[in-house]
Write a structure and sequence with these properties.
CATH class: Alpha Beta
CATH architecture: 3-Layer(aba) Sandwich
Number of helices: 13
Strand content: 5-15%
Radius of gyration: 19 Å
Order of helices and strands: HEHEHEHEHHHHEHHHHH
Shape: globular
CATH topology: Rossmann fold
């Protein structure tokens, strides 16, 4: 409790200092909301959005993070918790979330209160990243012990693709896990970002991120300074998604069997997200 109080106190003190630093800039700025599908560049998007703090009175750290599932228990949170969290955010906050596109959440996010962004990644790379994360990087994860008990990487990858039916902890297949996020693709108020574009087309993607906010508000800083600030804020060492710093890593790990089961449960998803034209991959 004390730790939370101190964190909140420091956050608001820093936010106040930012307001003084940019006293001539309008304080009526929307909260920046980074929505992400898990293992798709959450920390990377956080870093980029925090780059706006160098040119405007935005917070210099992420206000808070919300996830639809509790990490250690795997328990699904009540939808009202997401709405309460969204309602708690204030102008000039920067926040991050694994947030489902439920109608009530969409109505709040697609309002003047927020400048929202949604980042996602090739689901094939997601499932590979998920195996490494659960097995090697997060010992407190609800599925960690189960993944460690499996004989090899191939077996773990199958679970990340197909989900689990042997437990009361909700963990469906990759397509069903992505389904609650698909609604974010249907709203022009939300800028959609392919993780891969931040690797291979970074300048153009950062420009889109900048312009998404500038279409809503006016910042006093020159465009190039804003763009440079977003670029300079990226720190690959602090982003777990940069485990390899590459895209298309699934090709090293997918066997023919992995390809077959992935196509069965999520082939349409790859087409819908623009990663494939059909199932002939």
């Amino acid at each position: 409790m004390l730790k939370s109080f101190l964190r909140s106190t420091v956050y608001h003190a820093e936010k106040g200092m930012q307001r003084l630093r940019f006293i001539s800039q309008s304080a009526n700025l929307p909260a920046l909301l980074g929505i992400s599908f898990p293992k798709s560049g959450t920390h990377l998007l956080d870093q980029i959005l925090l780059g706006f703090a160098n040119v405007a009175p935005y917070a210099r750290r992420v206000h808070s993070f919300y996830a639809e599932y509790e990490g250690e228990s795997g328990k699904k949170r009540d939808p009202q918790q997401a709405l309460n969290w969204l309602d708690s955010l204030r102008p000039r906050d920067i926040a991050s979330a694994h947030l489902f596109a439920r109608p009530e959440s969409v109505a709040r996010v697609c309002s003047e209160k927020f400048a929202p962004y949604f980042i996602f990644r090739d689901p094939r790379d997601v499932v590979v990243s998920h195996v490494f994360y659960v097995t090697d990087m997060e010992a407190r994860h609800v599925h960690h012990e189960y993944y460690k008990s499996l004989p090899d990487f191939d077996a773990r990858l199958k679970v990340s693709i197909l989900g689990r039916t042997d437990t009361n902890i909700e963990f469906p297949n990759i397509a069903e896990r992505f389904a609650p996020y698909l609604g974010w693709l249907d709203h022009k108020e939300v800028l959609t970002i392919h993780f891969e574009d931040l690797i291979h087309h970074r300048e153009a993607t950062l420009t889109s991120i900048m312009d998404h906010l500038l279409s809503r508000v006016t910042l006093q800083a020159p465009r190039q300074l804003i763009l440079d600030s977003l670029e300079a804020s990226i720190n690959p060492k602090k982003s777990p998604t940069f485990r390899s710093g590459k895209t298309g890593e699934w090709k090293k790990h997918f066997t023919n069997e992995h390809k077959r089961i992935f196509k069965e449960v999520a082939g349409d998803l790859l087409v819908k997200l623009g990663y494939e034209k059909d199932n002939n991959w």
